[in-house]
Amino acid sequence: MTALPMAVRATRQDTATPAPATRPADAHQVLERCRALVRPALAEAVGRLHPWVGEMAAYSFGWCEVGGAPAVASGGKGVRQALAVLGAEAAGAPGRSGVAAAVAVELVHTFSLLHDDIMDGDADRRRRPTVWKAYGTGPAVLAGDALFALAVETLAAQPGGAGAVRTLSGALGDLVRGQADDLLFAERPWTGPRRVRPGEYRTMAEHKTGALLGCAAALGAVLGGAAPETVTALDRAGRHLGIAFQIVDDVLGIWGDPRVTGKPVHGDLRERKKTFPVLVALGSPSGNRLAALLESGEEPDAAAALIEDAGGRSTALAEARRHIAAVETALAGVPLAAGAAGELRSLLDFLVRRDV
């Protein structure tokens, strides 16, 4: 095994497996509990990489700075790894049964972010340079490829690993389709017969965001020995969650408080993104006027007001609520361990009921 980057080695201490809460915990407690359970295994997996590639991976997780010195940067909430752990617990298995699924999905998620940042030209993530800006484009592509390979290796080593790898591969295929659609949307006109419709956006969001969320919960359930109908229900719930999450994110991208989102007000409008509220408003009688504002990149305040007046914000929030209800329906349709189901619902609620 290759040498671990300094910051990764610091995570390899013995960590007691936290016991599931005896009563419903809030989402922050759920996320922290699951991160504590998964992180030693995630660090061990990253430690198997080439040292330079492992350093880039550790940097992307917020564990180190460029050069390998320990860091205190946020590595994200760990939503997908929490869904994998809760998927196993929902099936009545201990949370550690879902750790390999959590590691694999977290690796794939990070791989996708490394490549997305390059494709989108994003220079910053979580308030510091993205991997391609810090290390270069080629190294960032290499690190992403290594994380994907490591994810497959992690799952393949589990009992029943072949089926788990097929599930992950299917989700990754959807993720790629969603990313392809998202990139192509940017090239399509604001108005006319080729404009992007809200339904197309919904499909893109399910693939790009929902597929991996559903896969996380489903893989945890698979490794926890769940029945096929439970696995299917958790996957479906995660996909609806992804759509709701993306639409709420779109609302925040226009009207969110920068102190909460970390993004400038009206940031998505300045970047001329075809988000769900924008697409709804473009289909209204004000669509041509809005298109002209968006094309010019000027007067984002006026564009935001026009989108709201055209029903973009209210329709988007109603659509998000519809998918939240679909999540609840999916979860209610199968037997789930009560404690894990409660924590799962608290996590889902946290992800979509933000300050909108």
Decide which structural class fits the backbone.
mainly alpha
Query: What's the SSE pattern?
Result: HHHHHEEHHHHHHHHHHHH
Q: Could you report the average pLDDT, rounded to the nearest whole number?
A: 89
- The 3D shape can be described as globular
| Largest sheet features | 2 strands, antiparallel
Unreliable residue runs: 1-23
Percent of residues in helices: 55-70%
N/C terminus separation: 47 Å
Q: What would a concise description of this structure say?
A:
By secondary structure, the chain is mainly alpha-helical.
Describe this protein's structure.
It is a single chain. This protein has 356 residues and is mainly alpha-helical. A two-stranded antiparallel sheet has the order 1-2. α2 crosses α4. The longest helix is centred in the last third of the chain and has 28 residues.
Keywords:
two-stranded antiparallel ribbon; mainly alpha; disordered N terminus; 2 strands; 356 residues
Q: Mind sketching the topology for me?
A:
Elements: H1 6-9, H2 27-46, H3 51-60, H4 79-90, H5 99-120, E1 124-125, E2 128-129, H6 131-135, H7 137-156, H8 161-185, H9 198-223, H10 228-255, H11 258-261, H12 267-270, H13 276-282, H14 287-296, H15 300-309, H16 312-332, H17 338-352
Helix pairs in contact: 2-4, 2-5, 2-17, 3-7, 4-5, 4-9, 4-17, 5-7, 5-8, 5-9, 8-9, 9-10, 10-16, 13-15, 13-16, 16-17
